[in-house]
Known about the structure:
2 copies of one chain form a homodimer.
Chain A: E1 14-19, E2 30-45, H1 53-61, E3 64-76, H2 82-100, E4 107-114, H3 121-134, H4 140-145, E5 154-162, E6 165-174, E7 187-192, H5 198-210, E8 216-217, E9 227-232, H6 248-268, E10 276-284, H7 287-299, H8 301-308, H9 314-327, E11 338-341, E12 344-348, E13 351-352, H10 357-363, E14 368-374, E15 380-387, H11 391-399
Parallel strand pairs in A: 3-4, 7-9, 8-15, 10-14
Antiparallel strand pairs in A: 1-2, 2-3, 2-9, 5-6, 6-7, 10-15, 11-12, 11-14, 12-13
Helix pairs in contact in A: 2-3, 5-6, 7-9
Amino acid sequence: MNxxxxxxxxxxxxxxxxxxxxxxxxxxxxALLVSDRPCAAAARVTTNLAKAPCVHRARAxxxxxDLRAIVVVSGCANALAGAPGKAADDALAASVGAALxxxxxxxxxxxxxxxxVPLPVSRVEAALPSAVAALASDPEAAAGAILTxxxxxxxxxxxxxxxxxxxRLHVMGKGAGMIHPNMATMLAFVTTDLxxxxxxxxxxxxxxxxxxxxxxxxxxxxxxxxxxxxxxNGASGAPLLDVGDPRLEAVExxxxxxxxxxxxxxxxDGEGASHLIAVTVTGAGSEAEAHAAARxxxxxxxxxxxxxxxxxxxxxxxxxxxxxxxELGSAANPDRWRIAICGVPVFALGAPVPFSAPEVSAALxxxxxxxxxxLGDGAAAATAWGCDLSYDYVRINAEYHx
Amino acid sequence: MNxxxxxxxxxxxxxxxxxxxxxxxxxxxxALLVSDRPCAAAARVTTNLAKAPCVHRARAxxxxxDLRAIVVVSGCANALAGAPGKAADDALAASVGAALxxxxxxxxxxxxxxxxVPLPVSRVEAALPSAVAALASDPEAAAGAILTxxxxxxxxxxxxxxxxxxxRLHVMGKGAGMIHPNMATMLAFVTTDLxxxxxxxxxxxxxxxxxxxxxxxxxxxxxxxxxxxxxxNGASGAPLLDVGDPRLEAVExxxxxxxxxxxxxxxxDGEGASHLIAVTVTGAGSEAEAHAAARxxxxxxxxxxxxxxxxxxxxxxxxxxxxxxxELGSAANPDRWRIAICGVPVFALGAPVPFSAPEVSAALxxxxxxxxxxLGDGAAAATAWGCDLSYDYVRINAEYHx
Lengths: 402, 402
């Protein structure tokens, strides 16, 4: 898995571009991802009731078998903007279809940025000729053009062997670390030259998303625009994989690894974040319990503030887990729990374990902080990722004005 | 309803004391609430799986008909402290029972403060003679002794007429505004000279708590020690009220008003808080939907940070509501929603409404900020309260060290 694939490693039959159209106040803000042939496509989108038009488009078009392109515009979410927002999304797809010479219904859209304002689609239309001219096999410029308040691009790639044929996957993502409605949202786009049926694409994307993006939290808020798309064009020449094919497992494993990689990069680049927090729960009675406890700890403001302050405050960990397990109706018992911070046991079987607070406090200054909780009940486990809560988080979100 | 009742307005047959025993680093930290006769008692306690011994004691003793006293110790939560914590709670009840000359099983305990350390019960025992000597009808000293990081005491009182007999209710509460496990937790104690059966006490407490304390949030975290107790001693001479008695409704209304008053004071005194945020949801299809949307908006970090920054960011309100309604499986549709901030319409029927941002920003600087969301679906409504997210919240929770 490489962060910056060289052009030769990029998926075959895919071309990418990232240009400036002026929707964002500065920098490249418009990305095109184009396949030279129809793709099987799957998507996972925000569960929020407030969905941007691009999310409705993705839901209607996937799973599908004839998708050709994705256009991503950064700087304007085009969400909660009424009928003008819906019209702008339609116009965007139509213009991109015309510029590429493909049916607009085969174009997926993704927008991110300020809420409540319709996309100034004419600016994107004016930039489309230069975007089409810039299309090339290197995804780097596109990965940079989808960002908002992110401090760095996030991409990863992998190769999967299918009966001796190498197929490539590339993923670009963004979050600003922040899963929030205003100047950022979580987006990820997987392009691959694997040959998948739409059902198979959908089948591998679901579990991969649930083990990656559904296990990160910056502030517990979801947005109108969150989405993850997977488009497979078959250009590798690998055999077509359908649901039930045992060879699909290797695809799911590779895809999950890529998405976890991007998810961790999103959490680590959270607004104001100085630490990636990895919470691993083991010994759970079910995966749902492990997941709830891990996410609950990762999203607790008190745990996040403690990590920011390098404070080995295990009580907050136990209490966050206890709250979220209780909400699930769990019968987990703290008298069986064990907690470790940065590998140091701090709580066992219902009572504190003596430890060197200065030593653990020093360990908490590392860029990645590990919190481990064993529930003493069963064999299920889950990991969730978050980031610390800093003065900069408050500054960014209080001082950013609509 | 008065914030500081004079002694003559306090419930009959009740005496209170607040003294220093040295569990907290400074100030009064030990409160006694004592009835001169057995009380009907009800309680609502934290749903967190991690429960302090005092919470288990309250669960075992309520509803009950022979309770005599409550002891509250501030500075040590006596939670997640293993067998020594359980022994300390038993010793506390036994010592208070002996000091008051009552059965220890009629003594309820409440502890709040640092987690993971057993209560230094000998310090409290040494202070008990002075606490007993200080018992008087004025609840003020006790209300001050239950605080941790709160900046001010929180109390309220009311009188209810039952067939021409005046009965009194008094409530003291604490929170540090913060519903969190380390240096604070939410506690409230209602003492009254009403005559209630234990079942009636339980019956009125439940709805009152669900409309008050269950609708405030400082940071979304619950603690090991949260509890609300209601003890009724009948000393007013009012007739005994049982479940099903129509006269109970006036009691429930008065109690709900008192608890909402304390809940709002807790939210307004949240750690680092500079604004109380009141979120009112109307037009909901069910009370559950109204409640979920109101709580979801009140606890959103992004909404809280926007209020701190006086930013009329209605997108964050819509998106927080959309997320929490979706989690409930609601079919609410943003195309029917209306949002107002400080009384100014900002969003209607799926699209933004033009408004003066400087004017709303100026209104957001008031100590109490109102957010209104109408879902356009039905007749159900709910209000939730929260506070803003400030630099001081991060400072208090990052710099407080275990």
